[in-house]
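In this section we walk through a basic example: taking a raw amino acid sequence and producing a predicted 3D structure, encoded as discrete structure tokens. The instruction is simple. Fold the sequence below.
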Amino acid sequence: MKRLRMQWPEVKIIVRADSGFCREGLLLWCEQNKVDYVLGLARNPKLRERIDLEMKQAQAGFEKTREATRVFADFCYRTVSKTWSRERRVVAKAEYIQNKENPRFIVTSLDGENYGSQMLYEKVYCARGEMENRIKDQMSLFADRMSTESFRGNPLRLYLATFAYSLMLGLRQQALQGTELAKAQPQTLRLKLLKIAATIRVTARRVWVSMPRSYPWQDVFRQAHLALRC
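The resulting token sequence is shown next.
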């Protein structure tokens, strides 16, 4: 943190993590070092009791529309066991979905005036999950394969995985819009568009690639090919 602030002294730093990191030691350290945090908070009967009214409202909304309904609550909370040194702001999502409750809680140092309950949960905290999805995409392209003997060799593999992800992203954006694979994950694109059995014939003037007639994604492949032709 000291090195970050030496380089960017005016930048606001926010620690964002799931409930496994929600411990007094980390919360207190952040507060003492002027670092903000948005952390998941494991639910318990006391927290559930605090959002009883909001949960009833969410259930009523679901029963009326048959669609997932969210109601947000904002309150101060301190653990009963006094493991927390003081009260802290907690934002709760009271959600009713598919005939069952789906409550979630986060604890934060960010103020309610600038960070409303719904915005804080959906735009700040939930973005953590989207970031994790991008990491998983990288892993599916072997970004975690660090088995070479040299230090330089391992980062090179990470660079190659990053380049591959950029190519996959470009493929989706430029060639797959409007298709079933427009939002497909990289591993899905590899399996359905790249790892295809084919017969290759080389002549004096051309290289012929003959794909099987039984290939189920012919239309998507054809569209992608036409979109990428120069």
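Looking at the output, two observations stand out. DSSP finds nine helices and eight strands in the chain. The first helix runs from residue 2 to 7. In the next section we compare this with other chains.
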